[in-house]
Design a protein that fits this description.
The chain is 24% helix and 12% strand. The protein is an alpha/beta fold. Strands 5-4-3-10-13-12-14 form a seven-stranded mixed sheet, sandwiched between helices. A hairpin with a 5-residue loop joins strand 8 and strand 9. The longest helix has 16 residues. The radius of gyration is 24 Å and the shape is globular. This is Glycosyltransferase family 32 protein.
């Protein structure tokens, strides 16, 4: 039997109802009470949005779009509040399923089951891309399990791009010889995950209309080559059929670091395949599908998808300050061609702020939407903006806090709680030597955000009772069949091993399950 270290949810009614008149001064006893023991509400997100549900980007950006210099932490709290409580406003034609029956013997498990790649998808399938170089670590495991835990698997495909330019045997090594990745082999066989070999293409196709839609690029046709191809611009070739090709290889030597490579990879794979790219240090919390569809009234192109990224760090100095840690782009489009051509023209520089400034100067930044930090990176504003107004739940002061059992400033962690204390608060006392911080549960982790950006932290491991420990144990419970995911679904895919916490530096007493 698994001994879970979380105790579920405190009820945070006032956080999600900013106009509440309740006012509670967080005393020491009260702060301990917030970390008391209760039952986890695993299915806190309710029913999963139907596969045809579309997010209204204008409403999200209007309610989560304050990029002014003087904005503080309070605006991200308001955005999270909107995302958590107003799905009826920003989801189009959302339908709700009947209240599910409960599985016998476990009142927390519903009869709903998670979908699989073999199930039919009522709409277009979206591909999720990520890039990795080297052997698999627990962070690769965290990314994959978060994807399986949160996404609509009938309508999603996960492609993990392994750098074969750095290691030609990367795919074979990961598939057959990587000790940690072997637990995911059954998922490959059933289509949950696909390993892809990343090698920079010798040439990349451009849409025929890209020349007409890219007036800022100088096309000066030269004499045909012996094969009938015509160089029409730096790095651009036109073949005998009139097809345009981008030739990035001569400049690839300028891409020196893994960060630069990953900056390039996302734009190439999205240009070729479309979908959404996510850095490996992005932890998915909610189903992204509503953000990856466009309204079709009437339906015209079911494969059409929106183009968006998130804003850079705490505020955008100009409309081109993008962060592409999470990036959605349509395949083979004028926009992706323009971005690839621009990065090549600037010496293979695909840094998002560089490309963003190029778009701004060329008047094309309106083609790539910009989401507020709260949507995918809710912690960053706590650290970089002025600490005005309310703080998020949890209220952390650094990126390490999610890995810590005892945060540096424990009095702030639940400082935004405004409702009455839980019923069991009176029996907890500040003088106790040990108080389990077990109200750290998924439902209280930046509620409303679609993802959480860990921001590297590659060498860190979760401490006992930390948020990351709670998140990984929640996943373990889901994949073992003892708990549901956040949408009340039971895992029905291949069995998955739990995290190997012995590699995290824990002692034997902390590893009890």
């Amino acid at each position: 039997m698994i001994e879970y270290l979380q105790t579920g949810a405190i009820n945070l009614p006032s956080f999600f109802q900013p106009n509440s008149k309740a006012e509670v001064v967080p005393t020491a006893d009260f702060l301990y009470a917030l970390n008391g023991s209760s039952v986890a509400a695993d299915d806190y997100l309710g029913s999963r949005p139907d596969s045809h549900i579309v997010a209204d980007f204008e409403k999200i950006m209007s309610n989560c779009g304050d990029f002014h210099e003087d904005s503080g932490v309070s605006d991200i709290v308001e955005c999270l509040n909107y995302l958590a409580t107003r799905k009826d406003d920003y989801f189009t034609s959302e339908t709700t399923s009947p209240t599910p029956s409960r599985l016998e013997g476990n009142p927390r498990l519903s009869s709903k089951v998670s979908q699989s790649p073999e199930d039919a998808c009522n709409g277009p399938i979206r591909t999720y891309h990520t890039y990795w170089a080297g052997h698999a670590t627990w962070r690769v495991e965290l990314f994959i399990k978060a994807y399986l835990y949160s996404q609509n698997l009938a309508c999603s495909r996960l492609w993990v791009w392994l750098d074969a330019d750095v290691d030609p045997s990367a795919l074979k090594t990961m598939l057959y010889h990587d000790p940690l990745f072997q637990r995911f082999r059954p998922l490959l066989d059933e289509g949950y995950i696909t390993l892809k070999e990343w090698k920079l293409p010798f040439r990349i196709p451009l849409p025929r209309l890209s020349k007409a839609l890219d007036p800022h690029t100088l096309y000066r046709p030269s004499n045909p080559t012996v094969t009938g191809e015509v160089p029409v611009a730096d790095g651009v070739m036109q073949d005998a059929s009139g097809m345009l090709w981008l030739l990035p290889q001569p400049l690839y030597k300028h891409v020196a670091t893994p960060t630069q490579v990953s900056d390039l990879v996302r734009f190439v794979v999205l240009h070729l395949h479309g979908g959404v790219y996510l850095d490996m240090d992005v932890l998915l919390l909610r189903d992204l599908r509503p953000l990856l569809l466009l309204p079709q009234s009437p339906p015209t192109d079911p494969d059409a998808q929106p183009a968006w990224a998130e804003q850079w760090v705490e505020h955008a100095h100009d409309p081109g300050d993008y962060n592409t840690a999470v990036l959605s782009l349509p395949a083979n489009s004028s926009l992706t061609s323009y971005l690839l051509r621009g990065g090549l023209r600037m010496g293979m520089n695909f840094h998002p702020r560089v490309l963003g400034r190029m778009m701004w100067k060329d008047g094309r930044n309106g083609e790539l939407g910009m989401f507020h930090n709260a949507v995918f990176d809710p912690l960053v504003t706590n650290l970089r903006r002025r600490g005005t107004g309310k703080c998020t739940v949890p209220c952390h002061k650094n990126f390490e806090s999610a890995f810590m059992g005892n945060v540096e400033e424990p009095g702030f962690e639940w400082s935004n709680y405004e409702g009455p204390p839980p019923e069991h608060a009176a029996r907890l006392h500040a003088g106790e030597e040990e108080v389990a911080t077990t109200n750290r549960t998924m439902e209280n982790f930046f509620r409303g955000a679609f993802a959480y950006h860990i921001h590297n932290q590659w060498q860190k491991f979760p401490e006992k009772n930390s948020w990351m420990d709670v998140i990984t144990r929640t996943q373990d419970g889901f994949f073992s069949g003892e708990r549901t995911n956040a949408y009340g679904e039971v895992w029905r895919g291949p069995a998955l091993e739990a995290y190997d916490r012995s590699t995290w530096g824990w002692n034997s007493g902390e590893l009890r399950t």
